[in-house]
């Protein structure tokens, strides 16, 4: 009886006037049938990946309930296209990585595939029986249709790339660096750089590619022998327009091989050889190539050792070149002879828009006035970097002359970019 009385008291509420009121009964809600269906679909997504087959108004609720970590990539890649699912999958799996979707064709599915591929390769280690390689090839197949950019910043094991990536028909950008990050006291020289076997397999991959346009191989300890091997693949390829070989060990023989490629109808438009070991002879090879090639638009030999004579040879060749628009010869031990060639080139070249000659001794105070006169007549040049060449008094009028041209060029480029997006929207 005592328990019944207490239960009755708890069911009554007494207001401030002393009147007793019954507590409102709790509302019992029966779940909607469609809510139950969405919940079942979310829980069974790995067994029955039917997300793309439900009505659009239920998709967001279903994705919210899905445990993306429980869905195998094999199943998801084959059966799920929905971008909300791939967005959640990417953010859940890599919460600390930047998710710059614009760098992945505005597609979360592609972003996930490319991140997944990077993780597979950078964590791979070979096994004696080859099972790890077989597993890698099998998993890579699921990502193949969606991958356009491959970027590996720490390839730790030698993999036959032509075998693993050879069937990637949509591959457009390849960015590889062999080595280890954050290795600490475990450093060994042999762990870094592209070996000759790597160069051979990569050469085959490049030679067979039908869509590849950009190749970046910086910081790979590439030498002249590596370039000889890679060059055979590049020579067979007619789609690559951008090649970055910066921060390697390429010297004059490698420069000769690359310049020969430029002479043979190469489609390269941008060649970056910053921070290598190219000297005067290598500069002469590139000068010879510039006399025959009008496709290359940008050339960087920054931080090499081409010396004053090499710099002069290249600038003289530009008197007869109609294609190059940007050249970077900064930090190359250039001097008076290059300065004379610069004045000559400005009189004859009407296509070059940017020259970087900083950290040299190209322009003396005495030549400043002659350079100003040449720049006033040459109206196509919009940027000339002469920092650490001469006094600020000589540089100031040159900067004042070129600044309006540079601003106008940026405005034109911005308008072209916007017009391009407008055409896409239309």
Termini separation comes to 80 Å
Number of helices: 16
What pattern of helices and strands is seen along the backbone? HEEHHHHHHEHEHEHEHEHEHEHEHEH
Strand segment tally: 11
Going across the major beta sheet, what is the strand order? 3-4-5-6-7-8-9-10-11
The chain-level mean pLDDT equals 89
Helix content: 40-55%
Question: So what's the overall shape?
Answer: elongated
Task: Give a quick rundown of the structure.
The chain has 426 residues and is an alpha/beta fold. The chain has helices at 2-10, 33-43, 56-65, 73-79, 83-93, 108-123, 131-143, 161-164, 196-208, 224-236, 252-263, 280-290, 307-317, 336-348, 368-377, 392-425; strands spanning 12-14, 20-22, 149-155, 173-178, 214-216, 242-244, 270-272, 298-300, 326-328, 354-356, 383-385. The strands form two sheets. A nine-stranded parallel sheet has the order 3-4-5-6-7-8-9-10-11.
């Amino acid at each position: 009886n005592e328990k019944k009385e207490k239960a009755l008291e708890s069911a009554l509420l007494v207001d401030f006037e002393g009147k007793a009121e019954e507590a409102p009964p709790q509302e019992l809600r029966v779940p909607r049938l469609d809510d139950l269906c969405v919940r079942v679909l979310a829980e069974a997504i790995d067994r029955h990946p039917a997300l793309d087959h439900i009505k659009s108004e239920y998709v967001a609720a279903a994705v919210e309930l899905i445990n993306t970590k429980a869905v195998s990539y094999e199943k998801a890649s084959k059966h799920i296209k929905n971008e909300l699912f791939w967005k959640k999958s990417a953010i859940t799996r890599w919460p600390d990585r930047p998710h710059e979707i614009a760098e992945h064709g505005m597609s979360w599915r592609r972003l996930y595939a490319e991140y997944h591929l990077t993780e597979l390769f950078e964590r791979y280690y070979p096994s004696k029986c080859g099972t790890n390689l077989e597993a890698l090839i099998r998993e890579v197949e699921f990502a193949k249709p969606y991958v356009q950019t491959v970027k590996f910043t720490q390839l730790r094991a030698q993999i036959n790339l032509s075998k693993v990536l050879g069937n990637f028909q949509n591959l457009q950008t390849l960015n590889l660096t062999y080595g280890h990050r954050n290795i600490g006291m475990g450093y060994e020289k042999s762990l870094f750089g592209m070996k000759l076997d790597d160069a051979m397999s990569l050469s085959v991959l490049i030679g067979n590619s039908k869509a590849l346009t950009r190749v970046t191989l910086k910081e790979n300890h590439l030498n002249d022998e590596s370039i000889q091997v890679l060059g055979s693949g590049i020579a067979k390829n007619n789609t690559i327009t951008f090649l970055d070989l910066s921060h390697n060990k390429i010297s004059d023989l490698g420069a000769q091989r690359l310049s020969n490629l430029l002479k043979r109808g190469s489609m390269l438009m941008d060649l970056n050889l910053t921070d290598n070991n190219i000297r005067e002879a290598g500069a002469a090879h590139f000068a010879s190539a510039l006399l025959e090639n009008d496709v290359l638009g940008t050339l960087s030999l920054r931080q090499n050792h081409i010396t004053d004579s090499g710099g002069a040879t290249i600038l003289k060749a530009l008197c007869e070149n109609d294609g190059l628009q940007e050249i970077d010869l900064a930090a190359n031990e250039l001097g008076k002879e290059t300065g004379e060639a610069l004045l000559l080139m400005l009189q004859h070249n009407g296509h070059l828009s940017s020259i970087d000659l900083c950290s040299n001794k190209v322009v003396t105070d005495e030549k400043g006035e002659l350079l100003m006169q040449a720049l006033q007549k040459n109206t196509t040049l919009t940027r000339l970097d002469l920092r650490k060449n001469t006094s600020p008094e000589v540089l100031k009028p040159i900067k004042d002359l070129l600044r309006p041209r540079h601003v106008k060029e940026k405005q034109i480029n911005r308008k072209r970019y916007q017009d391009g997006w407008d055409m896409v929207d239309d």
